[in-house]
Amino acid sequence: MANHPETELGPYVRGELAPSERERVARHLEACPDCRQDAERVRALLTELGDSVPVAPAVNWGRYRAELRLKLDARRARRRAWWSRPLPLALSASLAGVLLFFAVWSGWRSPGVEPMTPEEAIIGRRLDLLRQYSVVERLDLLEEFDVIRSLDQLAGTQEG
Prior knowledge:
Layout: H1 9-14, H2 19-31, H3 33-52, H4 61-84, H5 86-108, H6 118-127, H7 133-144, H8 147-159
Helix pairs in contact: 2-3
């Protein structure tokens, strides 16, 4: 036969083939001595491999659960220990309070920056200048060269 079941020999020996495939390979092995010899070699190899693998030790599930409970209880005790002690908790809370106080206090007392009045905030919202920052930047440059004062004078003379 020209069509040898070389790839099916392993599954055939292990009994993993479907019944129709198993019949086809068995018929071929009856007619082909080379494939029959290969199948015997595969069977011997699988037996030898199975014998060389050590047997896994039996698991004592009761002891495993007891060890697991001990470990979980120890972990819970460690977590509980830090929060149950009042000194670390008090120190952490006071440190957070001090840091918050300095952060807020330094924000209110920035050198050279005056706090914005509510009127300035309302005007700024209405004028929409924050979205047009490049225009505001240029106005500051114009102020340095007294251009704005000159424009105010020109506007006064043209109206009158």
